[in-house]
Fold these 2 entries.
Entry 1:
Amino acid sequence: MGIEILIVDDDPIGGSLTNTLLQEAGYDTQLITDSKLAMDTVKNERPGLVVLDILMPGIDGLTLCHMIKQDPGIRDTKIIMVSAKTFQAEKQRALRYGANLFIEKPYNIETFAHQVTEVVGPPRGGSASVKPVETALNIQIWGSRSSGGQGLKTPCVSVETPKHLFIFDAGTGILDAGSEITRAARHKDIWVLLSHYHPAHIEALGRFAPSRQGGVQLRIGGPTDPDKSLSDAVRDAFEASFDALPQPVAAQIQLYELQEGHYDLLPEVKLSAFYANHPSTTLGFVLDAEGRRVVYCPDCELYGESASAMQDYDEKVGHLCHGADLLIQDARWTDADYDAHKNEGHSSASSAIDFAVRHEVGHLLLFHQDASYSDPALEQMEAAARETLKSRGSRLDCRIARPGLKLSV
Ligand SMILES: [Zn+2]
């Protein structure tokens, strides 16, 4: 298949910036700096869009625009004119000749690809253009349900920075994460952070594939629980794993007992842990890396509107979550079911949404859905969440966390 966008710019620096921005957005592009070649290239390659600089030696951009729009064979080609020197008369002429859009240089790097997408549509290869131009953290959901069975996967979320990999919780979702990490072989030093030791959060730790690989450093962090220490929890998990995975543990394992507080995990990575409102000692985590903030709080009950004077949990945690790029939040119950499960340590979808809106987070993933909910029930929950947000005029991106869901922030 031919190219999607042809860029004609005599300035190699300006032209290659345009080229790079559009390639990063996912388009197949070609840059030519000799405008005399432009007409032939458009006829041969049939791009959907031509980006034309106005001031060029040879044939100038306005003349090219006119020629393309006069040629019955290629007149449907979309045209964006770009120019550093903007004269109102040129702009009007460009539009009169049939240009679809006029963009001034220097570009706004954040919005340029989006402006192009509005004219030509998303790239053929997929929706890369909806991503921000720079993405620093890649998040993937591997498991998200309150308990397993019938193919449901219990909590596990990975957060990958350009250099490091962090895994939150070791429910059965970690089995798929482990296979993928082993296959991709990008990381030999892996952090696994456990929120607490209820089975859904640790049951598959011992079967995490990288634990059987030599040369792997596995750093496991978790709370100090009076009923079960981190070392007991980890030992039990591995002892239970050998039937399914008889190979000896070959990774180097290091344990980190965590309490509420701030930790410098790595030179550019900070972790804050906070006690979540949930039976047993349970931590929520705030990961700060690459200038982004991700909050993982799989099991906790937000009090919402009904908080009493003694219940300052929402406030305490809200402070840490404020402005986070992503919040992965317990929303185990639909609003209808929550009443019957108050004070058990899990939140309703509405309280999660209220909380996320109040604290101006960028993306909200509703997490840890009750295992009794069917897929259509989850779809309804998601639709209801979107409806609520729309009626409030909120632009919060809110989705149900499902295995396979990927997000970049
Ligand atoms: Zn729990």
Entry 2:
Amino acid sequence: MILGICGSPRKKATEYVLVEALKILNDAGFKTEFFTVRGKKIEFCRHCDYCLKKKKCVIKDDMNFLYSLLNKASGLIIATPVYNGGVSSQLKTIMDRCRALAASNNNFFKNKYGMAIAVGGDRIGGQELAIQQIMTFYILNGVLPIGGGPFGANLGATFWSKDTLEDVMKDDEGFRSLRKTLKKFMEFSKIWNK
Ligand SMILES: Cc1cc2nc3c(=O)[nH]c(=O)nc-3n(C[C@H](O)[C@H](O)[C@H](O)COP(=O)(O)O)c2cc1C
């Protein structure tokens, strides 16, 4: 199963492009699940170290459902709006709360693979920096990072929303970068799951 995680608190540009990505995967025969931070209660990691001792997070909130989805996922697509040149704080909170997964099982993310989508209001607003943050999360947790390849996608899918849903829909270059990245992602998935 491929899990799409949306880091936007709104049903706008980031959710739109992630859902489009999942549709492309569904059409290619992949099973997908979608999770959004929108409307969810996900507390900050408290660094209480309960997870190191008890192998689970002490906080009971919507992260528990995401933990179960992450457990089932073989591939990840993390999509974020660009906030101050990085990922949204909601997405960063999810990343931090994943410490409990690594604490419960050092190999939790082993053999999973992931790509990234970043949507900025500005044309050059930090999309690559946000993707870099997602890639760093992947690398340090053992998720194999999948980029989009040179000439068009590079680190992953990058979108320019001009702060509106309507404009992200018209971002042909963004969708080109998404298709290129998905192509690499699907190719990798087929080889990896042989
Ligand atoms: C707190 C905040 C910080 C933002 N910082 C940036 C930024 O650094 N660069 C950028 O291009 N856009 C920035 N934006 C604009 C959003 O990335 C843009 O509107 C994006 O489309 C929001 O995604 P959404 O439509 O899924 O909510 C920021 C928006 C907010 C609310």
